[in-house]
Amino acid sequence: MKRLVLAWMAALPACAGVLTVPLGLDAYLPVPETNPLTPAKIALGKKLFFDKALSQDGSMACASCHQPEHAFTDQRQVAMGIGGQAGTRRVPRLANRVYGKSFFWDGRAASLEEQVLQPIANAREMGSSDAEAARRVGITVPEMRDALASFVRTILSGGARYDHYLAGEDGALTAQEKLGLRLFTGKADCSSCHVGPNLTDERFHNTGVGNGDDPGRAAVTGREEDRGAFKTPGLRDVARTPPYMHDGSLATLNDVIDFYNKGGHSNPQLDSEIRPLHLTAEEEAALVAFLEALNGQVRSGD
Amino acid sequence: MAAAAWCTETGVPRVCWSGADVTLLGSPSRDGKWLSFADPVTGALAVRNLADGTSHPIATRPAGSHEFAYFSVFSRDGRNVAYAWFNQQGFYDLRVTSVAGGSAPRVLYRNEDAGFVQPCSWTPDGKQILTLLFRRDNISQIALVPAAGGPPRVLRSLDWVYPKKMDISPDGRWIVYDNFAADGKTDRTIFLLATDGSEERRLVDMPGNYLFPLWMPDGRSIVFAGDHNGPEELWMLPVEDGHAKGPPHRVPGSLGRFLPLGMTNSSELFCGVRTGTPDVFIASITDPRNPVRASVRFVGRNRSPAWSADGSKLAYLSRRGTENFGQDTYTIVVLDLASKEEREVPAQLADIDHVTWSPDGSTLLASGSDGKGRGGVFAVRVLDGKTTPVATEHGAPFRGFEAVWARDGKSVYYLHGETELRQHRIVDGTENVVLHAEGMRGLAINPAGDTLAVGIAGRAIRLTPLTAGVKARLIPFPGLTELAWGKDLYAGAGVGLWAMPLDGGKPLPVPVPSGRQPGVSVSPDGNSIAYGVGYDQSQVVSLELPRR
Questions:
Q1: What is the CB-side half-sphere exposure of residue B486 using CA atoms within 13 A?
Q2: Is there a contact between A168 and B152 if contact means CB atoms under 8 Å apart?
Q3: What is the pLDDT, as a whole number, of residue A12?
Q4: Which residues of chain A neighbour B386 with C-beta distances below 8 Å?
Q5: Which of B267, B233, B268 lies closest to B248 in space, CA to CA?
Q6: ipTM summary value
Q7: Radius of gyration of chain B from Cα atoms?
Q8: How far is the C-alpha of B158 from the C-alpha of B164, rounded, in Å?
Q9: Is B138 on the interface with A (CB under 8 A)?
Q10: Residue B198: its chain A contacts at CB < 8 A?
């Protein structure tokens, strides 16, 4: 443990010293020039993130669903908004979204600045409006937008045992976890989509999850071939953030591995990469063990 | 327009090293006296004295080992060389060794999951080595590896097709590298990244393909290769405080097909230059001494022909794009032998080694690797190049597996490594091992589709029946390197080619040009053969660039 802590402290300064990037993540943070990270904006964004005044009835903050103690998601199958309204999709984890290329499960927001305002105005989520929320906290909409986006960019997860292994500490992973990693990038081919430091290709795939009611990416592009496609989620801290999939339909990591081992639910838009994997029980267990080695230290605002 | 002025003062290229032993996997020392290189014969990392042409190894492999050196770069003071070393476990370490000798090489980074490394530049203080880490999950990373040991500092993660070159500015503040200009594009351009990760920007924004950037020793400009949608040329770009100062300028003169290797303190640019016009030829079996060039449209850049099952078409690989240390990018071209039309098939593959046709002529089986870092065999639709994996895996050779199609089109036979001949069923992806043997190389299927010919340890051909109850046969053939089966079976041994009678008779030599290259195909009617002739050669040249 001491080694992990030291490595964390030795992590890289980035963005002119505003933020410390943990082991395993890129030092370069793609922050837009129009909204540079500043300590003041990050502090304001953090305050807003936890402020229930942003919701229509004062009952919900961003943090009501994106709970820091649960790696910035919650434990429900689907999101729950004001008045107990149920959404249709699982609350996404927010760690490492600074590296994201599009946002929401269907990628309908092209930037965090675009993304952070939508839940505030969504009738089934916070039920307010951008203007009303900003008025309540005494700032302008752009100030609220930029501050929230800045804070979300500081939510980082790294320093997992997987990161230490990649950094050259051969003993950071057990033999079973190493087998899981071999399978992850080999027979199970998980890395066909879950790639890079954040374990996502930031693209959209129909992996045969759900019953076909949710159009997914097709609602954004209007293309039938995108029906049922959802953005590949990053896998940081995945072991402590059940349930899984965009609809929260799978309760455990074992369920997820088993689902993919069977080749997903057949449908016309099923991604060509999804096929039966012929994994043994031992191999499924090794994959789960490897995924547990992705648990890192989630931090925000600093 | 000061840049134009210094460009006109550029010197004449000087050949520093030529001949069959030239390799382009090294870099010059900053004083211009030495060139590091990977010796392909001994596997050693060696340095060449550019004054007298002598060389000596500075890191060698143990006796009996298959380890070898790959990319290398001198430290700025010329005392050490950082290099990639293919280790006994089958992946690449990052190592450093002293040029003067006296101490064993040190391993700076070793991880199977980032199993390919390319050291590119040292920081001015000599404390860190700018290195590309190529991960098993198909991501490449720009990292600084401490020269004294310790975890790498990853600055930036990129796509699988990695930068060809990176360099650190003389003041240590900036890295220049090439990468794709945009998602989904194959043209590259030049980017700048702060060594502390604090900022990144694109430096070159004009049409064309730009790559292999290097800093000039004064830190006030960079040089790089680029084609501007035309011939490849050398370009210079003034840079100040991390920003481009004006547009890039061409350096007058032509180096041909070149790739920058490194820069000296006196502004002498070292480049690898490639020459040669390899091509595919078709010859009559009865008159093999008079081959005819197959391609009219893409002359001098072709290899690895494959005849379609009906004999109406010939597919071949055609080199595209800029130089890449001799590991060039190829596309598939299909030649209609009646109309002479040549059409490119845009396979979505990063590397292709050879192709074979499906029995119905609709699909090519391509051996190579894809943009997700998977090697193996892929099905490429001839109509539009749509590419789907057939039998692939991460970590497999990027040149893929040797493979042939079963005559019913329902399965594929392929060599997995050198020890397993497998059958892969297309419909459900299930596989079985047809044959276990050591050193298998060369695979062909007979016209009836009931027998496979497999090369065994470079010593014999094993005729492997695919129907029950038929015994396998072994035909001795020393030096075997390849097999092709049209109407008759042919065996290659290096440049030579022989017709192999199956009745026990002696192999009959086929007169082919002395420059024949591996990759032969026989027409289904048995009347013609197609093969590659000619090969690329390398030189190292230097060019004095005027200081600004």
A1: 19
A2: yes
A3: 42
A4: none
A5: B233
A6: 0.90
A7: 25
A8: 12
A9: yes
A10: 14-16, 28
Three-state DSSP at B90 gives coil
DSSP states of A240-291 as a string? Answer: GS-SBSTT--B-SHHHHHHHHHTT----TT--TT-------HHHHHHHHHHH
Cβ of A168 and B136 within 8 Å?
Answer: no
CA-based nearest residue in chain A for residue B427: A275
State whether A166 and B113 contact (CB < 8 Å). Answer: yes
What element of type H or E holds A183?
helix A175-185
Q: Taking the CA of residue B147 as centre, how many other CA atoms within 13 Å lie in the half-sphere pointing to its CB?
A: 23
Amino acid occupying residue A25: L
CA-to-CA distance for B90 and B41, rounded, in angstroms?
18
Q: Which residue has the tokens 């015994």?
A: B471
Over residues A176-182, mean pLDDT:
96
Q: Which two tokens stand for residue A284?
A: 């499924």
List the structure tokens of B422: 């497998």
Q: What are phi and psi of B452, to 5 degrees?
A: -105, 140
Pairing of strands B516-522, B528-533: antiparallel
Contact between A26 and B198 using a beta-carbon 8 Å cutoff: no
B297 interface with A at CB cutoff 8 Å: no
Q: Residue B376 in contact with residue B390, Cβ under 8 Å?
A: yes
Owner of token pair 């699988």: B160
pLDDT per residue over B98-151, tens digit each?
999 888 999 999 998 888 999 999 999 999 999 999 988 888 999 999 999 999
pLDDT tens-digit profile of B187-212? 899 999 999 999 999 999 999 999 99
